[in-house]
Amino acid sequence: MKDIVLKITGKTISTLPKPPEGTVLDDEPVEFITEGKLHTRGSTTFISYEESPLSGMTGCKTSLTITPKRVKMVRKGENIDNETVMEFEKGKRHEGVYETPYGPINMEVLADRISPFEPVGDNKNRMQVEYAVSLRGLMEARKILDIEVTDKN
User: Fold this and answer.
1) Which of 66, 73, 91, 131 is the most buried (most CB within 10 A)?
2) What digits encode the pLDDT tens for the residues 97-119?
């Protein structure tokens, strides 16, 4: 297991239904940088990190399991009632409950594209997931999630 610096950037690329003309979307990327742990077993990469106060999820631990065709995120901790599980697999819908500091929200995700988790420079790996998300009754959007991992050593 090695120490890493993890940078996760999320960006909304559109909302559904399309907002009225002239509406400004809040499409500024949201960036989260933290330290974590990484290990690999065969073609599977495991990443884990502690949530920060900035995420509103203090006391929670998040784990990512990355395979060539799927990314699974699991978040659990003392400040949420249920663990959150988000699965991204190209062309497959996954339903779940997204725990927030304000309570749970039913959600559905459908991944359109998952790039390989691959080297992009010295001691750095990167991947992207493009997906549609529906938070039942509240929002539907298309998003891009960029995951970049740098060895800490």
Assistant:
1) 66
2) 877 767 788 899 999 999 999 99
